[in-house]
Structures are given as C-alpha cells and as structure tokens.
Amino acid sequence: MKRKANSELIFQALICMALSVLFVFALISGKASNYIHPRLFGFLWFAAAFLFLIGVVMLRYSKTPKHNARPLKNMILVIPILTAVLIPVGAVQSQAISFGISAGSTLNNSTAAQNPASSAPDKGTVIPDTTTSKDDIGIEVSSPSSNVPGEDENGVITVTDEQFASWYQDINENMKKYEGKTLKMKGQVFRMNTFGASEFVPARYAMVCCAADLQPCGVLCRSSAASQYQDGEWLWVTGEIKIENYQGQTMPVCYVTKIEKAEKAKQEYIYFTY
Amino acid sequence: MTKIEIICGFLESGKTTLIQKILEQEYCKEYRRIVVLQCEEGLTEFRASAMANKDVVLAQIEQPEKIRKRLFSKMKEELDPDLILIEYNGTWPIEQLLRVRLPEDYRIDQILFCAEASTFPLYMKNTGSMMLNQLSNADAVFFNRCSGDTDALKATVKSCNRTAELCFTEAAAEQYAARVLKPEEVRKETSLRKKKQMGTAVALVALYFLAIHFFLNAPPYIKSINMIFIGILMQAVPFLLVGSFVSGLLQVFVSDDTLVRMFTGHKWLGYPLAVVSGFFFPICDCGIVPIASRLTQKGVPLSKAMVFMLAAPAMNPITILSTIYAFPGQPQYALYRVLLGTVVALLAGLVLNLTHVRTEDVFLSSSASCSCSVATVNVQGSGAAAKAESVLLISGQEFFTMGKYIVAGAFVCAVLQQVVPVSYFSNTGSRIILPLLLMLLAAFFMSVCSTSNAFIGRSFLNIFPMAAVMGFIVMGPMLDLSNLLMLGSNFKKSFIVRLACTLLTIAYPVFLLFSVFLIGGK
Lengths: 274, 522
Known about the structure:
The structure holds two protein chains of two kinds. In chain A, strand 2 and strand 3 form a beta hairpin. Chain A is elongated and about 75 Å long. Chain A has helices spanning 7-29, 32-35, 41-61, 78-86, 91-94, 97-114, 130-133, 164-173, 175-178, and strands spanning 156-158, 182-190, 199-207, 215-217, 220-222, 234-246, 249-261, 270-271. Helix content of chain A is 35%, strand content 20%. Chain A contains nine helices and eight strands. Chain A folds into two domains: 7-89, no CATH class; 94-271, CATH 2.40.50.140. By secondary structure, chain B is α/β, with parallel strands linked by helices. In chain B, strands 3-2-4-1-5-6-7 form a seven-stranded parallel sheet, with helices on one face. In chain B, strand 6 (140-144), helix 6 (151-160) and strand 7 (165-167) form a beta-alpha-beta unit.
C-alpha cells in the first residue's frame, strides 16, 4: 500500500525514544557517571522522561500523512546513539592514558595563557598551587570538606577511594598540614613526558562537568622503583610528603617508601563537588 | 499505473490556468485518458478545444468529505484514467487527500502549489496554518505574476518547506510540469532515481559494516573522542529540552500580538526595556529572530528591536542556569556572560542608531515570517489535552532543529580536543588575539543554541583561553549563521552583512578588554 503515515515524524519519535531509553539505561547501569558528573543526573532523568513523552505524542500524530516527508533529515541525531551503543565506555582512562596527559595538562595551560606570571605552562594540573587555581576553571580548590582522612595509630594517613577528591583539594589548600607526614594513597600510574625517570603520579581521573574535562589528579611521587610500573597500573603508594618547588610551583612531593599493587577503584572517576 | 497530480493553492492563484496549460501540451497525447477533478469552481473555464488530448473528463466535488476511497475506486471502475489532475481546494487540509486508501496501482505523484506573488505574503500572514498545511507538503511552488524581488518569497517558502522547487516564471513552471508529466522524462527520472537509491543502499550497508568493525575495534583515540562527544551531549540535551519546552509553551499560550503590544506600549523605557525583556523570553535564540522581525514590522524602532534580539539569548534564564552548571563553583562566569551580552547588544544598538539605519531601508516590505519551529502537524481539537500535545510537539520540533547543531558542535569539540596540540596556542606570542578570532568564527559557523552552548564552550577551555571561550559563548547566539539566514526572510541582505560586521567589530575589542580584565583580576 501507499505511504499512509508521516515517516519523518515516526523517525523523530523513534530517535526520541531511543535517546530516552539510552539515558535511562545509562543512569540505571551507572554508566552515566563515566560521561557526566553525578550532579547532572537529575537533569538526565528529566530529559529521559520528557523525550519519551515527546516520542509518544509524535507517534500519535504520525498518522497524519505528509507528502514530502524526508525521514533521513534527522540522521545526524542517530550518530550519537550509534556511537554511544557501539563504542565501549571507559576508554578515556584505561587505554588512552596518553591523551590523559594532554587532557590533564590543558586546563592549567589555559590559565597560563591568560596569566603571563605563571612561567610554567607545561606544568599541567598535576599539582596546581593554590594561588593560581583559585580562580581557574580546572581544579578549583574549595573549602575542604570534613571527609578528609586522618592519621591512624602508626602515623599513616590512608586515603580511601571515596576520600580522594576531598583529600586532594585539602592537600593543595593546606599543604603545610601534610608536611612530613606519611601518606598512603591509591591511583593509576601517570607520567608526563617532562617527568624524570624516578617521577610518576598515582593519579585518579577527576571530572568537573563531563568526560570532556577529565583530568588526572595526584601528588608527584619520587621512587627509584618507578620504572617498574606501567602507565595506567593501579598502585597503593606510601611515602613521606615534602614541600618543594618543582618547575616554578610550590607543591607537595611524595618520597615513596613502599609500593603495592592495588585493585581498580570501584568508581572509575572522582568527582569534585562544590 | 495511474498518476495523481495535485495542484493546490488559494482561489485565483492560477491553478486552473496551470491545468489548462498542461492539458494543451503535446505530451498529454501519450496518456490514454485524463481526469481533471475540480474541488472548487474556478473563475477560469477550461477550453476543451485547445487541449492536446481529446479524452479529458472533467469532474467536480464540493465537499472535502467526498474525498475518500470510494471516489477513486469508482473512478477506476468507470473511467479508468491513467492521469488524474486534482485541482485541490485551498481551504481543505491536504491530509484529507493524502490519507485516502488508493486503489492498487494509483499513486500520488506530486503536489504543486500555486500562488500569486502579490497576495502570497498577505495570505501567509492571515491564513497561517491553512496555507502552511498545503505549502509544507508541496514538491514545487509556482508563483504567478511575479515582478521584482523574489528573495522574500524564496525565504518565506524555505522557512517552512526546504525541499520545494520554486518557479517564478511561466516558462519555468511549464518546464517543471513537463519534467513531471512527459512520459519519457518521467522514465528517465525514475531510472535515475532507482540507480541513486541502489547506490545509497549499497553505500549505507557498506558503511554500516565498516562502522561496526571500526567501532568495535576502535583505537583508543576514537574511544576518547566518543567519550567526550557523548559526555557533552548528555549534559547539553537536558538544557536544550528545557529551552524548547518553554519555547513551545510561549508559542502555544502567548500570541504574537501580545508580545508586540507589550513592546510598543512601553516605548518610553527604550533600550533598558529591550535588554531586560529578554529575561522574559526564555526561547532558544532561533525563536527570538522571528519575534524581533515581527516587532520591527509592527513599528518598534529597528535599533531597539535589534537590541532585544541580541540581548535576549544572554538574558535568557535557562541560558544563565546552564552557564552556572557548566562552570560549577564559578557563578561569576554567568554574570560575565550576561554583562558582556548586554554591552555588545547595547553597543550594536547604539551604532545602528547613530548611523541612522531606517526600518524602511532595510526591511523587506512584503514578507511574512514564520517561526523556525513551525509545527507542521495540526493538532486537532482544543482544550488542555490538545494544548499540552501541541506544546510537546513544538518542543520536539525545536529539539530536532537545534539538536543537529548541538551534535555537530559537540563532535567538532571532541575532535579538536584530541587533535589540536594543547600547547599550540599558549606557546604562540599572540595568546588571545588569534584564539579569540578563531572562537568568534567557530561561534559564527557552529550555530549552537544559547541554552546549551556553555557546555560546548566549556570543553573548548582545554584548548583556548577563558576570554576567547567567553567570546564563543556570548557571541554564539548573536553572530550565528543560522540566525542570520533566518533574518534574511525579513531584512535585506546588505543589512544583515552590515549587522554581522558591526557585531564582529564590536565584539573583538570588547573581549580583548575582557581578557585584560581577567588577567588583571588574577
């Protein structure tokens, strides 16, 4: 039989519903946290519900035929649906760590571009010092929350997965507090090409808004055994914190006493909250 | 096979004349029998003597309800024509005909819309949905008695039907009709179309397999581009939806006249009002262009209407909200956005005022605007349920219109982040001059909606300095290509070019100063 429905509208309705289902799936499976900051989840729920409603109404009205319907008009909106479904998640972190370098060192570079006083454009976000990061977009050091690790009976401060974000903000804000203390922290091995052979960062990837601003965060570590570990490997690193001037920046540096292999953290990324 | 050609348009739009012309052509001889079905009494009579094909049957129907399955099955039984020309009543909804279940080998081929060039804009304005209904379904639009400027007509048609072919002269119309009706031409076209379809199908299948293979074994950089791409979209889509929802609400519940009255009633408040009222029009920026055009048309001074148009996207509460979300913990950027947007809009208004641009000189006199999100589907019935449905439908249309730009913007962004070496711009001597120019150009071409461009701009921060990104965010909705094209349906091209240049010249120093301010503030 002849075309008796508005194929354009049907196609649009299907796209709306597919997007809606995709959002709900991402939210329920927890995959959404790989893409966006959890603070935006509410909006995503709203979007899913609203898109579904639109889809339903569109389907209802698609019974009115349209003569010159061009169903493929909205093909471009299918692209994100396809890539979201077909390309596996979590890649920014595991394999693409070399991109993590660029993604990581970028935010402070933009500060550097604006701020001629900062003489170390290649410094990256590894450890931004408090004064430059205050007004910056990147890692903003806000008031430390109460969720900051304390010393145990052996004088070791252990940073758990959940505490990493607030601890990271704290150590950059109150460096002195940690000077001379022994820290135990977990992260993935991360290196920049400006690093020396003994230098690495046990980093966690932090999200400010979405996957576009993922950046490695961590404290610079020095260890003679550093070269044994591959980029991206999960480690527990224990060492003593000293405050140093590293390439023009005052920042905490960890002199490693012990390295152990670690399990991957449950949550892929850490999230800064404000 | 029997072809059905629909010729529609308002009374006195030249439908009968066109049909007569067609029937006089030599190629009509190749048809066995032609039925002409008239749905209204035209003022022109058919002249049987001049027709090429002698076997032409004229029939008339008076009520739209008569158009149904039986009409065609009876026609097949009794007359068995191989070409049916329907002169369709301009006031009947076209769905009435499109919905009919036709006999086995009957097919609606083309819908040709006739219009008289001089009355078209007026009809468009006053009969709105009725004419839109037929116009948006048309394959071709024939303008009769066309004299002078065709730009306004073109723009009006394009605003609700992008694919229709336009004919402004009789010769062009005849040529088009021949292409549709001349048997050998038709055969050529169909075989060409078949080839094309085959080609596309093969290409799509090949692309599909390639894509699957490629995606599943995607190299890391593709995966990271994808993560960024989807991430940006996931945060932008909800805000885009809120924007289109509000836009739908406004379109359904607030009439154009109310808006215009609001404006012309408070002339004394002048520019501040133009700026502030943007706050109360939380429409996406492509919705603001038609409103600004209508304001100008109804007598609001040009410079004021332009200030309103330029400032509204920056003042839009949804835009402000999304900016706050895009820069968590730094509400000052939302404030900067509002302030910079206001400054640029006011300066542009001032320039327009000082250079004495008069509405008469730049406005296309005979044009009608229709919003970028005309819901081409008519919602039946009234009451709360129907209203709610039309709000949802309009939101949906708006979402699809703007969604394309968001997807493209997010994609460009994701690719640039991975491809452009980060140190590139920070190492060059000109730390702001070049990035700002690039960002302004990106704003111009990417046409991302104001309600969600903060997220896209934000991701550019990895490559460009803050002031340049601010330029992208603020100027995006003002300088955007799709908006300027839309303005083209009401304003002369020279004015639009001038406006764009004015904006660019104003924006550049403003954002250079802003970047000095940012550095100074450190």
